Here is the input.
Amino acid sequence: MTGSTEVELVGECARCLEPISDRMVVGFQELFVYEDQRNPSEEDDEVSTLEGDLVDLEPLLRDAVVLALPFQPLCEDDCPGLCPDCGARLKDDPDHAHDAPIDPRWAGLAALKQDQHDQN
Ligand SMILES: [Zn+2]
Ligand SMILES: [Zn+2]
Here is the structure.
């Protein structure tokens, strides 16, 4: 059996988590044998058998689609992802910037300074 099918893909960008949907055409090819013509001495589970006169395409399609899926789907090839500090989407806000983050070793001093400011 040889064929192809069009599948609809839904997922999210591996970098910015934006939902993405796509369509893909997947081809497949598989040899099916009749159950009663299967060689009983051959303990090969890889051989696909017909169920009566019917073919169960689901495992075949699932394997074909999974193999064709991108390992890390992206909303676009050069997706800049998310800001590591605040999680903003860098694609929406390319000039996104933060003041230099406070060194965690000095964070206590910043809080102290804030306290003094509040008292004044
Ligand atoms: Zn993205
Ligand atoms: Zn940010």
Notes: Residues 83, 85-86, 88, 96, 98 surround zinc ion (ligand 2) (CB under 6 Å). The two ends are 82 Å apart (CA to CA).
